[in-house]
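Justification of computing resources. Each target in the renewal requires a structure prediction run like the one illustrated here; the chain below, 200 residues long, is used simply to show the kind of job we budget for.
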Amino acid sequence: MRYALELGKQRERLVCLKAVAAERPVTLLFSARDRVHNCAAVLRKVLCCGPELGDAAVIMSHAELLRFLNSLLGNSRATIKEAKAILQRTATRMLDIQRDEAYASAVLIQLVKSLGGRPNYGIEPTDDIAGGAGLASRLALFGRDHIRLADELESNLRRVADDRIRHRLQKLLKARVRNFRRLDGKPHLVLAQKAPPGRD
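Resulting structure tokens:
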């Protein structure tokens, strides 16, 4: 979402690139590990689908909201599984995180059902950190995934039109921020904090 907003500031260049893409193949490169969620995928969607990239957020459709909630649910359930694996070494902190994520899963299941959707009880695949990785590596990867999911949740909140659902998702985001602090005592994400002048 953040990248899509940045693209909105480059409207003239996007129009030119879209015209070129209409005439011949265009290759988009990316360096992210995630082949689905990266800047090239966002740019491809913009070039292919051509959504308006203004400052106002586009409200999610019902189907898009269900997919988004099910994605959050799958990630939340994967977090529960990983929290159980790490639990043996970091019992107190991980119990709190596991409790919050179990609650998040219950809330997400309820929201998906209230919209007439079918909850996705599958678990999203995560990096294979179970085999032989030290505790510090596991916690670093676990924290990185939490930050990625919180960023995704925060960037999509403005697009949720239903106030009740948005309020519930805001509570889940606050719980994730609290969990970052539990991991190492430092806040990794501060809600609604603007960058200082001169930093983008």
